[in-house]
């Protein structure tokens, strides 16, 4: 579904991503793990066209998307949940969700999708009228994921959904991520919490200094001594 | 007592105009953090366009009220195009430049537009065709005219419409989202360029309306009139909290009233030393006081709370 070939991302003279190639199949949950600064987030941003790729190609559903405008990406069916959540603090929860459905014009569909999101995250329904800035970090992460789902994406890109959250909240968020995946969503997940990412993905790529150094089935990587030593702290 | 009421009415009228112009500053600032110092010149060009169009239509024998409407429409359209062009040509290429660069560009555009207007319309004061009936009303010893009533009513209606647009429509929601976090708004599918252009176009349309009202109120216009009007409206926007729509509205009306009261009483206050022609002092005293004691303005949000 998503094919990334020879992707380069550079900031000024600094190479953040050096020629990486990977793919995500329809219905798969794939994790991209690695240490801080390994280039995971840059990879995701390049796919979402938030940053320009310095080289390489990105194809989505057999269509080249590496040169389209940033606001067109979501119309192709890719929704990014940005690092740090990026909720609109001074819009209400409802308005944030409606922003997620910005590309949908049918009010009935939007209302229906909102019920789907509320089913995943009942907490958001309780807080519907509150300003997003008054939510806790975990609730904001729920809102960010819910907002991304509102666009009826074919694929979800999650950038560090566990960042800065209490363990109990992380658990809740990942329960929903699993549920969304079980409902057929294709997911590319970026996590510093490698164990968590490997536990809820089918395949994973390990990045180091802008390159993919390992890849394989998540269950096998969990048992790989190198991964255990480097990323699982054992 | 009748002076007090009279000056409050005068201030309300002047303040409505400030408010409309202030909205243009505040919308652009709210969305992209730019003080568009050329906005006063947009208003000036709006006034002059309406004079030319309405004037020549009246000369051609069109009924005065129709010509007035045509002048207003032409002025609004011209200013919308001008606002769009300003953003496209002057500011968009500087979107990622350091903050000072677009600010200096704005001042430059203001000078360019002023000189352009001077070349087109000349240096002389132009008389504004009076296309509104001259009817006077009296209330508790204070006099006011039909024009004054129309200015206040039209401004209030327009501002109500703007609030509906911003808080009840999809474009408005996209504008608010873009103001808070343009990168994420773009992820949601919002074309940031279009939203920013919309802010300029809407602000300029409001400016044109204000310009026509200023023209029909004072019945004269001049290629430099945008400078002082723009500065006062900018002061009003700062007073209300720049970036905040309701703030610009309240700030405009407050500034108008403060100025009118100041002009009414400055003679008494200084024992006749300063006359009402010194009324401009008050706007800038307000600006300085606000900047010193509450730089975020009445409704201002703390800066740096972007999500």
Q: Average pLDDT across residues of chain A? A: 93
Assembly annotation = heterodimer
Largest sheet of chain B: 2 strands, antiparallel
Please write the string of helix (H) and strand (E) elements of chain B.
Answer: HHHHEEEHHHHEHHH
- Mean pLDDT across the residues of chain B is 92
Strand % of chain B is under 5%
Structural class by secondary-structure content of chain B: mainly alpha
- Strand content of the residues of chain A, in percent? 25-35%
Q: Given this structure, which CATH class of chain A is correct?
A: Alpha Beta
What is the CATH topology assignment of chain B? Answer: ABC transporter involved in vitamin B12 uptake, BtuC
Give the overall shape of chain B.
globular
Any overview of this molecule?
Helices cover 37% and strands 27% of the residues of chain A. With 234 residues, chain A is of the alpha/beta class. Chain A has one domain (25-43, 70-231): P-loop containing nucleotide triphosphate hydrolases (Rossmann fold, 3-Layer(aba) Sandwich). In chain A, the strands form two sheets. A six-stranded mixed beta sheet of chain A has the order 6-7-8-3-9-10, sandwiched between helices. Chain A has a four-stranded antiparallel beta sheet with strand order 2-1-4-5, with helices on one face. In chain A, strand 7, helix 7 and strand 8 (186-191) form a beta-alpha-beta unit. In chain A, helix 3 runs parallel beside helix 6. The radius of gyration of chain A is 17 Å and the shape is globular. Chain B has a single domain, classed as Orthogonal Bundle (ABC transporter involved in vitamin B12 uptake, BtuC). With 307 residues, chain B is mostly helical. In chain B, a hairpin with a 2-residue loop joins strand 2 and strand 3 (142-145). Chain B is globular, with a radius of gyration of 19 Å. Chain B contains eleven helices and four strands. Chain B has a two-stranded antiparallel ribbon with strand order 1-4. Chain B has a two-stranded antiparallel sheet with strand order 2-3. Residues 303-307 of chain B have low confidence and may be disordered. Classes of the chains: A alpha/beta (234), B mainly alpha (307). Chain A binds chain B through residues 48, 50, 69-75, 79-80, 82, 85-91, 95, 98-100, 102-103, 132-133, 147, 151, and chain B through 170, 173-174, 176-177, 180-181, 183-192, 301, 305-307.
């Amino acid at each position: 579904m998503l094919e990334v070939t020879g992707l380069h991302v550079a900031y000024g003279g600094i190479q953040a991503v050096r020629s990486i190639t990977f793919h995500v199949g329809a219905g798969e949950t794939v994790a991209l793990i690695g240490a801080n600064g390994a280039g995971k987030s840059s990879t995701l941003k390049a796919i979402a066209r938030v940053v320009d790729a310095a080289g390489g190609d990105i194809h989505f559903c057999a269509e080249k998307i590496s040169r389209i405008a940033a606001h067109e990406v979501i119309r192709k069916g890719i929704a990014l949940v940005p690092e740090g959540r990026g909720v609109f603090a001074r819009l209400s929860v409802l308005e944030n969700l409606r922003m997620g459905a910005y590309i949908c014009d049918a009010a009935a569909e939007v209302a229906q999708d909102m019920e789907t999101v509320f089913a995943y995250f009942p907490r958001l329904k309780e807080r519907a009228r509150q300003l997003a800035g008054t939510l806790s970090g975990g609730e904001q992460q729920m809102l960010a994921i819910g907002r991304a789902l509102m666009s009826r994406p074919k694929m979800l890109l999650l950038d560090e959904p566990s960042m800065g959250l209490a363990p109990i909240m992380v658990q809740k968020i990942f329960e929903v991520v699993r549920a969304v995946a079980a409902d057929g969503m294709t997911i590319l997940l970026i996590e510093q919490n490698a164990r968590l990412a490997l536990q809820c993905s089918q395949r994973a790529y390990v990045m180091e200094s802008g390159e993919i150094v390992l890849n394989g089935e998540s269950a096998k990587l969990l048992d790989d001594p190198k991964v255990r030593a480097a990323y699982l702290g054992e | 007592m009748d002076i007090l009421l009279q000056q409050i009415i005068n201030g309300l009228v002047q303040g409505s105009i400030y408010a409309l112009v202030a909205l243009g500053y505040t919308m652009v600032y709210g969305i992209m953090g730019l003080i568009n110092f050329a906005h006063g010149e947009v208003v000036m060009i709006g006034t002059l366009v309406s004079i030319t169009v309405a004037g020549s239509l009246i000369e051609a024998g069109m009924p005065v009220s129709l010509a007035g409407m045509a002048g207003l429409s032409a002025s609004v359209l011209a200013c919308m195009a001008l606002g769009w062009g300003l953003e496209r040509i002057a500011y968009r290429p500087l979107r990622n430049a350091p903050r000072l660069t677009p600010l200096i560009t704005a001042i430059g555009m203001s000078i360019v537009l002023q000189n352009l207007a001077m070349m087109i319309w000349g240096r002389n004061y132009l008389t504004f065709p009076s296309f509104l009936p001259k009817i006077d009303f009296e209330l508790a010893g204070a006099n006011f005219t039909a024009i004054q009533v129309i200015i206040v009513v039209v401004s209030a209606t327009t501002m109500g419409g703007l609030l509906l647009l911003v808080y009840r429509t999809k474009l408005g929601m996209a504008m608010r989202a873009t103001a808070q976090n343009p990168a994420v708004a773009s992820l949601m599918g919002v074309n940031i360029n279009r939203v920013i252009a919309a802010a300029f176009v809407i602000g300029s349309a409001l400016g044109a309306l204000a310009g026509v009202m200023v023209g029909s109120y004072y019945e004269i216009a001049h290629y430099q009139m945008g400078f002082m009007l723009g500065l006062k409206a900018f002061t009003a926007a700062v007073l209300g909290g720049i970036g905040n729509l309701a703030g610009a509205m309240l700030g405009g009306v407050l500034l108008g009233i403060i100025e009118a009261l100041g002009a009414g009483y400055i003679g008494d206050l200084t024992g006749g030393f300063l006359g009402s022609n010194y009324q401009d002092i008050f706007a800038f005293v307000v600006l300085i006081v606000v900047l010193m004691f509450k730089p975020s303005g009445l409704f201002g949000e703390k800066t740096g709370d972007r999500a």
